[in-house]
Amino acid sequence: MRKIKIVTDSSSDVLTLDGVDFESAPLKIVTGEKVYLDDASLDVEGMVNDPATYKGKSSTSCPNPDDYLRAFGDADEVYCVTITGSLSGSYNSALVAKNTYEKENPTSRVYVLNSLSTGPEMALIIERMRALILEGHSFDSITAAIDEYTTHTGLFFVLESMRNLANNGRVSPIVAKLAGMLGIRVVGRASDRGDLEMLSKPRGERNTLTEVIVQLRKNGYNGGAIRIAHAMNEPFAKSLADTVAKEFGATDITVYSLRGLCSFYAERGGLIIGFEKQ
Ligand code: X90
Question: Residues near ligand 1 with C-beta < 6 Å?
Fold first, then answer.
């Protein structure tokens, strides 16, 4: 029996997976006083409510190659998906780990996917990996199917603030300024290059809902699987889920809380939406 494992970093917000060996390599949120490890035991609300994470100087750091090597364990086949390599070193760490791992274990195969995205889009990819593994496909056919699947997934975000993104150089200061940076809501998507692309600045909750629906339609969403994750904003996430169900007849919808890394950057009130498209 070949040992198979799915590995991700904690930006996917996935902590456990049924039926397949699974591990999440945690990123860290670092403030002047504390280091928060983004694992299952993290008190996400406590971290987000810590003034040091939204007022002070705070940053994040990604898993290093050794963290990934430990996560790969002793699997014969590893399917690994990381946060966008355009905004984090996580993808690079995973690649370095893959090269070491395959050298030390010549019969093992490691697939590393740069999601060019984060959170809920990674969650969709992990769900698909799991399904393909449970169907018993070969390494080559699973990786080909995943590469194909990622051409049919997308990510939107709705952010109340881009302070932490701007302070850590993850959006250009010009973009942050143009978007209003503080107090103004921004709707955007993960670009093809794996960074943030701003789309609009709707005012009010109703207009924001309408805007997300318009953008979903424009971007090829047609009622497929959709994952709506929020940073302490369940009411808004739920009304978006209801609207999506009504407008598209979607049935495969889930609403859940973001974990640490995504909550830190999306900030209180933020929403991140992963979806399947045509
Ligand atoms: O390596 C690190 O320290 C992690 C850096 C991550 C920086 C970006 C995180 C973005 C999280 C914001 C909205 C979604 C944007 C998607 C763009 C691809 C969430």
Answer: 27, 60-62, 83-84, 87-90, 117-118, 155, 157, 170, 190, 194-196, 262, 265-266, 272
Q: Tell me the Cα Rg of the chain.
A: 18
Q: How far is CA 39 from the centre of its chain?
A: 14
Counting as low any pLDDT under 50, the low residues of the chain are none
DSSP annotation of 63 reads P
Q: What are the CA-CA distances from residue 148 to residues 103, 116, 276 (Å)?
A: 27, 14, 12
3-state helix, strand, coil in the chain (%, to 5): 40, 25, 35
Q: Say if CB 80 and CB 94 are below 8 A apart.
A: yes
185: CA distance to ligand 1 center in Å? 17
Q: Which residues pair with 159 in a beta bridge?
A: 186
Amino acid at 205: E
Residue 174, pLDDT score: 74
- pTM confidence score: 0.97
Residue whose Cα lies nearest atom 10 of ligand 1: it is: 265
- The tokens for 19 are 């039926």
Instruction: Tell me if 260 sits within 8 A of 47, measured CB to CB.
Output: yes
pLDDT digit string (tens) for 137-159? 999 999 999 999 999 999 999 99
Mean pLDDT, rounded, of the chain: 96
C-alpha–C-alpha distance, residues 136 and 139, integer Å: 9
Structure tokens given for 192: 């093809």
Whose Cα sits closest to atom 16 in ligand 1? 190
End-to-end CA distance of the chain: 36
- What is the pLDDT at residue 116? 98
Taking every pair of Cα atoms in the chain, the longest distance, rounded to a whole number of angstroms, is: 56
Cα–ligand 1 centroid distance for 105 (angstroms): 32
Strand partners, 227: 254, 274
